[in-house]
UniProtKB/TrEMBL annotation:
This is (2Fe-2S)-binding protein. Coiled coil: none annotated. The lineage of its organism: Bacteria, Pseudomonadati, Pseudomonadota, Alphaproteobacteria, Rhodobacterales. It comes from Marivita geojedonensis. Residues 91-266 form the Vanillate O-demethylase oxygenase-like C-terminal catalytic domain. One of its GO terms (molecular function) is oxidoreductase activity.
Amino acid sequence: MNTAIENHWYPVAMISGIDGPRETLLLGKKITLGRKDGTCWVKDATGKALPTVERFGHLWTSPGQPNRDLFTIPEADSPGRRLVDVGSVKVKCSPLRAVENFLDIAHFPFVHTDILGAEPHTEVDRYDVKIREEVDEVWATKVKFYQPQAAKSAAGGITTEYMYRVPAPTCSVLYKTCPPRPGEWDIITLFVQPLTDEWCEVWPWMALYDDESTMSEMVSFQQLIFMQDRSILENQIPRKLPLDPGMEVPTQADMTSVAYRRWLKKIGYTYGAQLVAA
């Protein structure tokens, strides 16, 4: 495995859920994690201590030597936000497929019917996508879509504005219209742990302005959304994410996916990717 894959940070646990030592997989290899005297730790199969970061309510580690700190989300530190640990879901799909699905707007009316989308509001208007070289991230902006219930806090249908950010190969950050606070963004993230190249654990996390919903209601709403995605993800063919642009035919709605795949090729990240046609 090349350093372009090993030298990234990966989520491996929700900090609040760490008690005794336990084993998990990362990039197909066994690791052990735990907490002692309030400090989290991770070791590889040989007992070697791996670097750790505690951020966004999760424990992160890397089997390599990351050349930069884990990304930040400054907006999440704004006063009044509620930080929501959603839990995790194991999915039988490529970790890259999980991220790409999170970036896909066109499936909303068909998979999340009457929540994030509904017919006849199926058209995705043109939006802007760019690989921001100065930070080495993929960004999609000016994304707008009609949603019957954009969030747990939404009282009715609205046209929701989105911004998508891919700060790491297996992570994505979504900024979306905040129904209770016009002019502010709700933040919904997808942190993906690559167990193997065709099996992953997904750790959603949110930073929301919502003074009405209970914590369990916000968690349940987001889990409902992801469980609707799960069956789609587990039935995609090929299971790995094709990086060759000729292997799948994109539409205008797939501009973010195209940029994401191009970026993965640029940085040499191929774990969970299919490089040639089957």
